[in-house]
Amino acid sequence: MIIIPILAASLQAASPAPAPPAQPALRSPSDAIAAAAPADWQDVDPADLLLFEFDGGRSVAVQLAPQFAPDHIANIKKIVRSGHWANATIYRVADNWVTQWGAGEDEQERSPPLPKDVKEQPDEEYSRPAEGLTILPSGSVDPYSQLAGFAFNWPIAMHADGRVNLAFCYGTVGVARGPAPDTGAGSELFAMIGAGSRRLDRNFAAVGRVLSGMEHLSALPRGTAPLGFYAPNQAKIPLRSVKIASDLPAAQRPRYQVMKQSSRAFADYLELASHRKDYGFGSAGAALCGVPVPVRLAP
Amino acid sequence: MIIIPILAASLQAASPAPAPPAQPALRSPSDAIAAAAPADWQDVDPADLLLFEFDGGRSVAVQLAPQFAPDHIANIKKIVRSGHWANATIYRVADNWVTQWGAGEDEQERSPPLPKDVKEQPDEEYSRPAEGLTILPSGSVDPYSQLAGFAFNWPIAMHADGRVNLAFCYGTVGVARGPAPDTGAGSELFAMIGAGSRRLDRNFAAVGRVLSGMEHLSALPRGTAPLGFYAPNQAKIPLRSVKIASDLPAAQRPRYQVMKQSSRAFADYLELASHRKDYGFGSAGAALCGVPVPVRLAP
Predict the structure, then answer these.
(1) What's residue B110's pLDDT?
(2) Is residue B74 classed as helix, strand or coil in its secondary structure?
(3) Which of A94, A176, A202 is the closest to B2 by Cβ?
(4) CB B165 within 8 A of CB B127
(5) A187-196, B133-142, B184-193: the lowest-pLDDT one
(6) From CA A111, how far away is CA A52, in angstroms rounded?
(7) Residue B197 is nearest to which of A195, A199, A221, comparing CB atoms?
(8) Among all residues of chain B, which has the CA nearest to that of A139?
(9) Cβ contact B4–A177 (<8 Å)
(10) How far apart are the C-alpha atoms of A230 and B21, rounded to whole Å?
(11) Contact of A257 with A293, CB cutoff 8 Å
């Protein structure tokens, strides 16, 4: 069998072949994740955990990031509980770009109205003051900011104005909007499914990340209408239900954990992922989105 | 309809809404592509154009890059013409990572042998001397190299040793191998379908890029066996035929073109894509893989 290496945080598989005994195997980012202690993991707050069930048994768990977009996220929680998404669908899949869902143009008319207490034109919330940063190791420069790293266990980019934005990486969830910055209330969301997502940084409200079920968004048929919208002859994918985990009985809540950026395990992971030596030439650095924060279900 | 912006080079769609007359629309990368003159485009050599037909009408066109991996590419052409891939399949789809095909482990036994003149252990060909570079605009630093840009109309990264490698971006095609660098003859190939692909730079032989049909590789069901291999209960996707375009009568060859990196249109595109101002905040730079070389079918 011919192998090629695997993204550490997305698959924690065994390394391809044992090294000969005289030459001990070099450690990989997966080894750092496997060696993490229980205290190195942070429980995801069930009040910030959205559980989507799309048609066909497609379960997608999304963690919200209220540290970055509180008004948008307050809106989204109200929308989830209101029934506004009763007829919501996945209606757009643009290759190497986004999968988008919610109450789209066609669904708006037959959807229950937005709840009255939703802020229909929230401020942009594209960045916030810097706080509690962990910076990428040396070599890992960032073409989209002055400095990239992590805050509140999320990937962030810091700018010359001292503010940081939640970075748009693979699996980041954002709020769709019209041409004006304050036109995205939260009734239509998108997840990044390709490369090149970072250019949305500070242009759209990033509100969360997919913790599991990403393949249910990334492997969908691409839309054939302009901009990757589903054409009339393509079947949109209905949203069957969506819950906030904290609204479920405690025993029914899935318990996700993300690695704490302040942990020794994360420092180890970050160093190994940025300066890989476990195969071939290794690398002199890594892009921010190339070192995703490790995620797991609590054991 | 709520919109979000689109990768310029992957979709050349109209911009979302006309600007009001008093405030002329700011130009986007798509505008630079649309304004390119016929001389700004380079025909893809049909001798370097592979036409794959996978089961289910999935056509995928791949341009080879002999400037970077001549021995591997000579191998691949021999394999294409030999019938070695008679039983080849797509047998691995790892989310946010790769789709891989060829004569895999299960197909090797019942495949015609590799042609005798294939170099079974070609040298690694992971980099080459720098030549004819176009560098990314200011601000576009690269975490994986000293300097990133383009050579021979391909994305490249230059290193402290003065050598450049063909960069692994979305849609880049590489040669799968075992743990040793010289174990990839070319009978198993992969295409990058996610973010974070750059860490393969100088670790695997990059041999080409997908010019069209990328969605037939990126939207496939993900493999459920370890490392994203298809499990026994998943249907591998047979390769029905593969041709080198120059082996077809001239009238049957699709005529692809890539934008010349030396053209004024490309300089315009590169600047607009790196310092976007056509919506929101724009950006201070761009990642190498965020500015793919524009591709089209000859008009």
Answers:
(1) 77
(2) helix
(3) A176
(4) yes
(5) B133-142
(6) 18
(7) A195
(8) B143
(9) yes
(10) 31
(11) no
Q: Determine what percent of chain A is predicted with pLDDT higher than 70.
A: 91
- Distance between alpha carbon A240 and the CA centroid of its chain, in Å? 21
Instruction: Work out the pLDDT band at A9, boundaries 50, 70, 90.
Output: very low
Return the number of CB contacts < 8 Å for A and B.
242
Phi-psi region of B196 (alpha: psi -120 to 50; beta: other; left: phi over 0): left
ipTM entry: 0.90
Contacts of B218 in chain A (CB under 8 A): 95-96, 194, 218-219, 222
Interface contact flag, A105 B2, Cβ < 8 Å: yes
Spacing of C-alpha A116 from chain mean position: 28
pLDDT band at B275 (very low <50, low <70, confident <90, very high): confident
Count of residues making up chain A? 299
- Residues shown for chain B: 299
Q: Do B170 and A11 touch (CB under 8 A)?
A: no
Q: Which residues of A touch B176 (CB under 8 A)?
A: 2-4
Contacts of A110 (CB under 8 A, 6+ apart): A87
User: What is d(CA A244, CA A206) in angstroms, rounded to the nearest whole number?
Assistant: 18
What single letter denotes the amino acid at residue B55?
D
Cβ-defined contact of A197 to B197 (cutoff 8 Å) = no
Distance of CA A83 to the CA centre of its chain: 24
Q: How far is B47 from chain A (nearest CA, A)?
A: 27
Q: How far is B248 from chain A (nearest CA, A)?
A: 29
Contact B188 A218 (CB under 8 A): no
Asked whether the beta carbons of A78 and A247 are under 8 A apart, the reply is: no
Residue pointed to by tokens 């990031």: A65
Question: Hunting for tokens 């997502």 — which residue is that?
Answer: A197
Structure tokens at B131: 């030549």
Confidence grade of residue B23 (pLDDT, cut at 50, 70, 90): low
